[in-house]
């Protein structure tokens, strides 16, 4: 066999590389098992054992390993396998535009920014592109003909490269570069912050073409702390403070307005603002003291258009800011400060911090000492000179940390922040300030949180489903193909080793969907071997010797294998391009798996088989029970196509009717919202809990927001979904929703469970085991990308089939079959989402499943089309109908074996793979079944009808397969 030496060399080198990459994972796991065996559940003792064992070094000659270095190099486990947090941060690009315009108050600019904010709610474009569009629209509408290079827009001293006569197109390019650089700066700042937290194997990535940054931190338990560290801009600002006498008359007037116009504001007219702000208990230099439960109502009133219009001149630009945290003596309240603003709301002092450290004041309280940069020091000196004897506020991200009176001028830029800090809070603040400030505010627009216990369960479920699926494949393929099946299994094991090794070498993250991708890759590997062995069997039945039969089997199979893999690869690549998070993980493993399958199942398997045959040894390609299975099978598929058209038409009509009437259960990926998987110690009533939560999820005007509670996996676990406060992407909103859910579930939780315990459920305990948040803008993007992914897959496959088979009729047949599969799957989800005991939401996982089905279905179709193409050259005497029937009948063994093994694999994952994968696998089960059906009865039949045109053929009444002709 030619090239045997090269294939063997590549296999050995690739194996050594993979072994070197995977060794750290094996070694780190070994050390952790040893430590756990000694320490048991004692975490302190476990850490001590790890420290002791970390001193040992494994010397293998070509590499040296200790636990610390191995841990850094081990394979990355995704959020769903290890627990932790995955957030998508969006840099506030309006802030960036304001900064680049030097906080201009130009009316055209302000209106364009306001319109852009609205447009972004339903736009998938970048903020700056929508801004340019809106700026031109406002300019045209007002007839101002204002240029972007105007001094009131971007032609200011901060942007020296923009001159008064710089064309708009050139200014746009400069602004795009500046914003991209700012997002890059934000990325570096976030990486520095995460490094200071000491997180193992964090993953920080910029999302191309957006102002977003993806951060994944496996193993993290203190989720609120992480969210705060990530979203804090570290923009330290100093403002003048307005005192009570200036503000109280306005509050009194506002109280009367609420009684008259409360409905317009969105609050009840009976709301008493004076009582809410608790003037009698206001501490320090604040203007109000508000219960935590009332802050949302007060915000709604103060931010309403009516309240803004009613402001007197001295409060026209005032900003109302909350204290950083409740005071020691009022743990259930937040104080409110009146900050003296200005027309562009630029702080008098807005300097970067050069250094920060933890210290203690005279009373032993924890404080943070800071040294500002040179510009900040000059501004701070000027401000303290101006406000000597007055109160100033130190703010971070529009939260007031302290508001002291200025006793003396501070000339050197040194200052101190006090804020009732704990040691950990002070450390986090020092770390944030030390890492540098973000160029603009950041908000969490999407978040996934998985508790460590759920991560461990996911690993167990994933490994269990993987082992069962692997065992099923091994048993079946050896049973069906005998000795040749053993070589197929060896190739699969090697393939599996390569997949894990390559993933580790490219620093890819293994996720639960990724495990599903690996298992499906194994199914594709089985398919490649089935095609080869079925062709080899045909050659043996023609009377050829074993060596020649295998040679011809590989030769005839290679075209179908390549076509099938490439069409599936198209969908996998599209899935990677348009997918996010875990779906990308699925796509990556599938892509690697497909490429490695071609190497192991075609090249490496060929080397092993021919190495045996060249030694004069035989190698069976069947067993006694399977030798003649499907051998003489011949079915008049084309003659029965009209019945299949009727059946498919009925199925599609039912599906479309259900879609129109029932619709779908959309996941928060598409609608925006929050969901929480909550575990209880005993079975609970989902309907009763939903009613309780609905009463709590009310807006300030008394309207209920949607909330749904469904059993998830078992009766002692619920999935709670709500869109309450979803437009508010702040950390405070997240905490408010979690508190509401805690209050609504309290009667079903352990009596001594605190809110903190509830938010971080550990193994065997009740509470939140995972949560997901998707903001409205992200949901729009996911919807758009999902639709584009499906459409792009269909177009890509149409073009590939057209190029490979040189007939548009084949492309049309293939796309018709895929369209049929997609509609039927959608119909099944529409019909049964209300009754199935597992999740049947239309979400990102569903889109991934649809694309996987498309890839599998087209692979099945390509095998049949490849045989039709072959017979078009070899059997010109046959009628077209006979030729199609011959082609489909001769591949029926391959179709059955591949579909059967794939369905067995998916069933194993469906049953044992855990609740998170069940909906995904159900879609694949339906899709594989209908995909196999459509390849024969829709794709092939459609291609036949359009190839035949109007010409009528005689009905085929007998078998015309090769086997039958030889028998004659």
CATH C-level category of the largest domain: Mainly Alpha
Low-confidence stretches: 954-958, 960-968
> What is the approximate shape?
elongated
- Say how many strands there are: 21
CATH topology of the largest domain: Multidrug efflux transporter AcrB transmembrane fold
Strand order of the largest sheet: 5-6-4-16-21-18-20-19
Helix fraction by DSSP (H/I, runs of at least 4): 55-70%
Largest sheet: 8 strands, antiparallel
N- and C-termini, Cα separation: 35 Å
The portion of residues forming beta strands comes to 5-15%
Let me know the CATH homologous superfamily of the largest domain.
Answer: Multidrug efflux transporter AcrB transmembrane domain
How would the blueprint of this fold be written?
Layout: H1 4-39, H2 43-53, E1 57-59, E2 64-66, H3 67-73, E3 76-77, H4 79-82, E4 84-91, H5 93-100, H6 107-119, H7 127-142, H8 168-197, E5 203-207, E6 212-218, H9 223-231, E7 236-242, H10 244-265, H11 273-276, E8 288-291, H12 295-302, H13 305-309, E9 319-323, E10 333-339, E11 353-360, E12 366-372, H14 374-386, E13 392-396, E14 399-402, E15 414-418, H15 423-435, E16 442-450, H16 452-481, H17 483-505, E17 509-510, H18 512-541, H19 546-578, H20 582-613, H21 641-661, H22 668-671, E18 673-679, H23 686-696, E19 707-712, E20 714-722, H24 731-745, H25 755-759, E21 767-774, H26 776-805, H27 808-832, H28 844-874, H29 880-890, H30 892-912, H31 915-948, H32 962-967
Helix pairs in contact: 1-2, 1-3, 1-17, 5-8, 6-7, 8-15, 16-17, 16-18, 16-30, 17-18, 17-20, 18-19, 18-20, 18-30, 19-20, 19-26, 19-28, 21-27, 23-24, 26-27, 26-28, 27-28, 27-31, 28-29, 28-31, 29-31, 30-31
């Amino acid at each position: 066999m030619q090239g045997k030496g090269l294939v063997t060399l590549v296999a050995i080198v690739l194996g050594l590389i993979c072994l070197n990459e995977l060794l750290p994972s094996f070694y780190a796991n070994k050390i952790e098992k040893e430590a756990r065996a000694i320490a048991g559940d004692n975490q302190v003792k476990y850490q001590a054992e790890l420290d002791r064992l970390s001193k040992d070094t494994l010397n293998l000659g070509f590499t040296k390993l200790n636990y610390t270095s191995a841990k850094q190099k081990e394979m990355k486990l995704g959020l769903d396998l290890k627990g932790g947090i995955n957030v998508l941060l969006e840099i506030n690009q309006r802030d960036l535009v304001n900064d680049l315009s030097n906080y201009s108050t130009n009316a055209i600019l302000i209106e364009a920014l306001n319109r852009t904010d609205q447009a972004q709610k339903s736009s998938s474009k970048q903020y700056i592109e929508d801004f340019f569009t809106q700026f031109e629209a406002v300019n045209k509408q007002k007839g101002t003909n204002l240029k972007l290079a105007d001094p009131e827009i971007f032609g200011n001293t901060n942007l020296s490269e923009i001159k008064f006569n710089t064309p708009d197109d050139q200014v746009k390019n400069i602004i795009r570069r500046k914003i991209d650089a700012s997002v890059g700066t934000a990325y570096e700042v976030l990486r520095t912050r995460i490094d200071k937290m000491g997180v193992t194997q964090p993953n920080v990535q910029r999302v191309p073409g957006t102002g977003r940054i993806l951060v994944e931190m496996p193993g993290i338990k203190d989720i609120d702390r992480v969210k705060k560290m990530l979203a804090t801009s570290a923009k330290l600002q100093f403002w003048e403070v307005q005192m009570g006498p200036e503000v109280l008359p306005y509050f009194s007037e506002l109280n009367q307005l609420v009684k008259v116009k409360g409905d317009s504001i969105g609050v009840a007219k009976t709301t008493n603002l004076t009582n809410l702000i608790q003037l009698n208990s206001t501490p320090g230099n604040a203007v109000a003291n508000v219960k935590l439960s009332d802050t949302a109502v007060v915000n709604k009133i103060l931010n309403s258009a009516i309240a803004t219009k009613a402001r007197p001149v001295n409060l026209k630009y005032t900003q109302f800011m909350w204290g950083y945290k409740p005071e020691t003596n009022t743990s259930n309240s937040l104080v409110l400060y009146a900050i003296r603003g200005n027309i562009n709301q630029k702080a008098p002092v807005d300097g970067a911090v050069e250094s920060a450290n933890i210290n203690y004041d005279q009373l032993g309280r924890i404080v943070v000492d800071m040294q500002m940069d040179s510009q900040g020091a000059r501004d701070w000196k000027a401000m303290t000179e101006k406000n000597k004897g007055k109160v100033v506020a130190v703010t971070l991200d529009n939260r007031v940390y302290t508001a002291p009176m200025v006793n003396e001028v501070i000339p050197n830029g040194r200052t101190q922040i006090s804020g009732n800090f704990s040691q950990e809070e002070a450390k986090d603040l020092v770390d944030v300030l030390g890492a540098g400030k973000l160029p603009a505010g950041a908000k969490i627009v999407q978040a996934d949180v998985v508790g460590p216990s759920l991560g461990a369960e996911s690993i167990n479920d994933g490994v269990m489903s993987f082992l069962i699926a692997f065992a099923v494949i091994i048993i079946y393929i050896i049973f069906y193909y005998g000795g040749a099946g053993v070589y197929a299994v060896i190739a699969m094991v090697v393939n599996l080793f390569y997949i894990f090794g390559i993933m580790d070498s490219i620093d890819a993250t293994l996720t639960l969907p990724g495990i599903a991708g690996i298992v499906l890759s194994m199914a594709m590997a089985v398919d490649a071997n089935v095609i080869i062995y079925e062709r080899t069997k045909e050659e043996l039945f023609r009377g050829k010797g074993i060596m020649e039969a295998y040679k011809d089997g590989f030769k005839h199979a290679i075209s179908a294998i390549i076509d099938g893999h490439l069409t599936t690869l198209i969908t996998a690549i599209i899935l990677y391009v348009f997918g996010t998070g875990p779906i990308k993980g699925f796509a990556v493993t599938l892509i690697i798996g497909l490429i490695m399958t071609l190497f192991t199942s075609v090249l490496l398997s060929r080397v092993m088989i021919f190495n045996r045959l060249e030694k004069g040894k035989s190698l069976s390609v069947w067993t006694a029970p399977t030798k003649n299975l499907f051998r003489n099978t011949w079915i008049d598929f084309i003659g029965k196509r009209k019945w299949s058209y009727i059946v498919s038409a009925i199925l599609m009509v039912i599906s479309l009717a259900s879609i129109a009437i029932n619709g779908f259960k959309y996941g928060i990926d598409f609608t925006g919202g929050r969901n929480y998987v909550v575990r209880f110690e005993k079975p609970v009533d989902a309907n009763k809990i939903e009613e309780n939560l609905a009463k709590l999820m009310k807006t300030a005007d008394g309207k209920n927001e949607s909330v749904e509670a469904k059993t998830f996996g078992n009766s002692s676990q619920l999935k709670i979904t709500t869109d309450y406060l979803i437009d508010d992407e702040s950390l405070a909103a997240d905490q408010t929703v979690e508190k509401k859910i805690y209050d609504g579930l309290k009667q079903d939780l352990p009596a001594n469970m605190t809110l903190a315990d509830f938010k971080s459920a550990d193994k065997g305990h009740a509470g939140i085991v995972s949560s997901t948040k998707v903001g409205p803008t992200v949901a729009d993007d996911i919807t758009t990308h999902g639709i584009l992914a499906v459409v792009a897959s269909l177009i890509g496959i149409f073009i590939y089939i057209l190029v490979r088979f040189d007939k548009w009729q084949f492309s049309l047949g293939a796309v018709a079959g895929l369209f049929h599969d997609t509609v039927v799957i959608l119909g099944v989800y529409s019909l049964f989402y209300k009754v199935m005991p597992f999740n049947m939401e239309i979400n990102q996982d569903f889109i991934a499943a649809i694309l996987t089905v498309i890839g599998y279905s087209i692979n099945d179709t390509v095998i049949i089309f490849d045989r039709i193409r072959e017979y078009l050259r070899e059997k010109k005497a046959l009628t077209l109908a006979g030729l199609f029937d011959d082609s489909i009948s001769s591949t029926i063994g391959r179709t059955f074996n591949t579909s059967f093994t794939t369905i067995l694999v998916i069933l194993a994952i469906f049953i044992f793979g855990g609740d998170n994968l069940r909906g995904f696998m159900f879609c694949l089960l339906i899709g594989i079944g209908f995909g196999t059906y459509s390849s024969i009865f829709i794709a092939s039949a459609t291609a036949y009808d359009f190839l035949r045109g109007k010409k009528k053929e005689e009905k085929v009444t007998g078998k015309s397969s090769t086997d039958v002709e030889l028998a004659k």
